[in-house]
Amino acid sequence: MTPSSDLAAGALRQPMAEGAPNPVRVVTSVVSRTVLGTMAGLLVWTHVPVVALGWTAGVVQSGSMRPALTPGDVVLYQPPSRDRPPAVGHIVLVRDPTRPGRLLTHRVHQVRPDNALITKGDANPAPDSTPVRPTALQGVARFRVPWIGLPVQLWRAGRTVPAVTVLLGLATLLALAALPLHSRGRAAPVAS
């Protein structure tokens, strides 16, 4: 070994100085806080338009709109405007004409002369067979917040184990973010 490699190896073996932050805890804390901060920001982002502007938020449940929307995404919908109906290419939230009581998020494929909409999921091979009446329009998609609704989507799909796993992962991140950065034990004296 060279003198410089002996010096580097010795530095790695030396205990941390009294009061120095534990590097593993620092990295863990930074990563945990970054993930949690990002998620908190995304949650705020999904709620501000709903509360302040009367928009609607919905969690994507199926893959019919892939790749534009994936299951677990939260989509924010602006209320429909009578002055500007949705145009071809807009993603809309409508009351599903084939399943009463359910909502459907698809893209406008065609606007008929009677203003009824023909919708289509991006991943579907053909347009939906039943036109959507203008009165069934609930909103026009304006924002997509990726993955933030994943626990809700998993729970609604009956996949409780993955949903609980995601929630336990978030709880673990929260616990890691709360760890103190310094070790509580006494550090060994540093040799000079």
TrEMBL record:
Bilayer-crossing regions: 160-179
Name of this chain's protein: Signal peptidase I
This enzyme's EC code(s): 3.4.21.89
Alphabetic keyword roster: Membrane, Transmembrane, Transmembrane helix
Record flagged with keyword Signal: no
UniProt keyword Cell membrane present: no
Subcellular location: Membrane
Enzyme class: hydrolase
Predominant location category: membrane
